[in-house]
Design brief:
Helix content: 55-70%
Strand content: under 5%
Distance between the termini: 39 Å
Number of domains: 1
Number of strands: 0
Structural class: mainly alpha
Radius of gyration: 14 Å
Length: 89
C-alpha cells in the first residue's frame, strides 16, 4: 500500500500527522480520529480505515491511532457478522 494511496483517504493528513506526534495519548488520538471521520472519511469509512491501517498501522501496531483504526475495522466486521446471523434465522 503506497502512502500516496493512503493520502487519498486522509486529504488533510490528520492520520499521517498523528504518527509524528510524540506522546500522543488515547484521548488525543480519538480527537484526531473524530475530526478525520467527520471531514475526510468519505463515503466508505471502513475502506478508508483499512487503507490507512495498511499504510501506517501495520508498521506501528501499538500506536494509539493504529489501535483506533484496528478497533474500527474489527467492530465493523463484528457488526456485519452479527447482521448475517440475524438474517439467517
Amino acid at each position: 500500500m503506497s502512502l500516496k494511496r493512503a493520502s487519498e483517504h486522509d486529504k488533510r493528513g490528520l492520520i499521517a500527522e498523528s504518527y509524528h506526534i510524540e506522546k500522543l495519548d488515547d484521548d488525543g488520538a480519538r480527537a484526531i480520529f473524530m475530526d478525520w471521520a467527520m471531514m475526510d472519511a468519505g463515503d466508505d469509512p471502513i475502506a478508508s480505515m483499512k487503507e490507512l491501517w495498511e499504510a501506517y498501522g501495520i508498521s506501528q501496531p501499538d500506536h494509539p491511532m493504529s489501535i483506533l483504526l484496528r478497533q474500527g475495522i474489527d467492530n465493523y466486521k463484528a457488526h456485519k457478522n452479527l447482521g448475517r446471523r440475524r438474517r439467517s434465522r
